[in-house]
Amino acid sequence: MSIFETLESEVRSYSRGWPVVFDRAQGSWLYAEDGKAYLDFFAGAGALNYGHNNPALKQALLDYISRDGVTHALDMFTVAKRDFLETLDEVILKPRSLDYKVIFPGPGGANAVEAALKLARKVTGKESVINFTNAFHGMTLGALSVTGNSMKRGGAGIPLVHATPMPYDQYFDGAMPDFLYFERLLEDSGSGLNDPAAVIVESVQGEGGINAARLEWLRGLSELCQRHGILLILDDVQMGCGRTGPFFSFEDAGIKPDIVCLSKSIGGYGLPMALTLIRPDLDVWEPGEHNGTFRGISPAFVTATEALRTYWRDDELEKSVRAKGERVGAALTEIAESHSGVTAKGRGLARGLEFGSGELAGRVCAAAFERGLLMETSGPDGEVAKLLPPLTTSDNEFDQGLQIIRESVEAVLAG
C-alpha cells in the first residue's frame, strides 16, 4: 500500500478504516487482492443499490461498448440518452403522476444540488435557502452552505452564506410542535429571517446519522412551503432509487417536491450520473446557462436504463426492500435493547446503530471489518454505525452480516 500512502492525498478516508487493496467485486461482496471476501454493507455510500457488477447491467454495458456506442456526448442527442429518458418517463414518472423535466447537471450528487440551488434562486430572485440541522448535501461550496457538519463546512475556507438552518424532525425530542419555530420566524417581520427561495431537505439523513423524518413531518413541511410560496427541494441522492422501499424516498409521505436531486444509484452500475428533476414551469434556464463537460456519460445512461427496466417495471423490489428493511430493523432493535445506550435507527435498508460516542461506533465498525464486514460511521460525531447494503442482498447474506454486527457490538461493549 506504499504507493497510496506516498502519492495519494491525506484527504482519503474510507481506505483508512479498510486498509486492504480490493481487486474484485460481485453482488454484495468485495474481494481483497489476497482473496479474502468482505460482505459489503456500505454499497458505495448508496451508489450500488443493485450490487457490484450486476449481471444484467453489465451485459447491457458490454453490448453498448462492443458496438462502439457513443461514450461522451456533452448534452448532444444520443440513442442512449433517448432510451434513458423514455424509460424514466414510462417506468418512473408517469406511473407516479410526476410531471418533471430533467436536468443533467454533471456526474455527482453535489452537481444535482448546485443546479437545484442555482435554479431556485434564479426563479424566485431570492438568495436565502433554508436547510436543516445535521443535513448533508455535498462538498462543493453551495452544497456545503446547506450542510450541517462543522468539520466539512470548515474545509470550505471561506464564509458559507445565504443559508439558514432549521431544526430537523425530532431535533428537540418532541419538546416543540413541528415547524412552530420556522413558521413563527417566517411570519414575524421582526425575526430577521431573509425571505427564502427554497427549503432543501433529506427524507432520511444518511451522513447526518440515519435520521428518518416522520411521514407526517414531511407532509407538514410540504404544506408549509406551499403556504408561504417557498420551493421544496428534496435531496434523494442517497435515499432514492429504492433505498427506503419505493423508488423515491418521499413517496410514502404523498408529497410532490418542486425539485428532486438524484445521483449515486440512478446510474445503476456505480457509474457517475446525476439528475435534477424540476417542475416544467421552473425551467427558465437560458441555453448553456448551466453546463458541464460530463453531463452526457452514455455508459451510465445505458446501465441506468437497464436498471429501471429490470427492477422498476413492477413493485417486487419495493416489496423486497420493505420486508428486508423490517427484518434488519428488528434485528438491530434486538441488538440495541441488549446493550445500554445503544439505539436502532432508520427506514427501509438505510439503518444504523447509535452509540454514546463516535469512538464506540468506530470500534464496532473496525471489529466488523476484522470479521469480514464493511460498514461505516455517520452522524455529527461519527456516533452511528451505518448500514447501506445493496438492495439485492440475499436473506442468507443478511443473516451473515447481522451475526457479525452482533459479535462486533458484543466484543466492543463487553471489552
TrEMBL record:
Family, similarity comment: Belongs to the class-III pyridoxal-phosphate-dependent aminotransferase family.
Enzyme Commission code: 2.6.1.76
The superkingdom listed in its UniProt entry is Bacteria
Q: Provide one Gene Ontology biological process annotation.
A: ectoine biosynthetic process
Transferase as UniProt keyword: yes
Q: Which Pfam families match?
A: Aminotran_3 (PF00202)
Q: What Gene Ontology molecular-function terms does this entry list? A: diaminobutyrate-2-oxoglutarate transaminase activity; diaminobutyrate-pyruvate transaminase activity; pyridoxal phosphate binding
What is this protein identified as?
Answer: Diaminobutyrate--2-oxoglutarate transaminase
Q: Which UniProt keywords apply?
A: Aminotransferase, Antibiotic biosynthesis, Pyridoxal phosphate, Transferase
- Names of required cofactors: pyridoxal 5'-phosphate
**Which pathway does the protein contribute to?**
Amine and polyamine biosynthesis; ectoine biosynthesis; L-ectoine from L-aspartate 4-semialdehyde: step 1/3
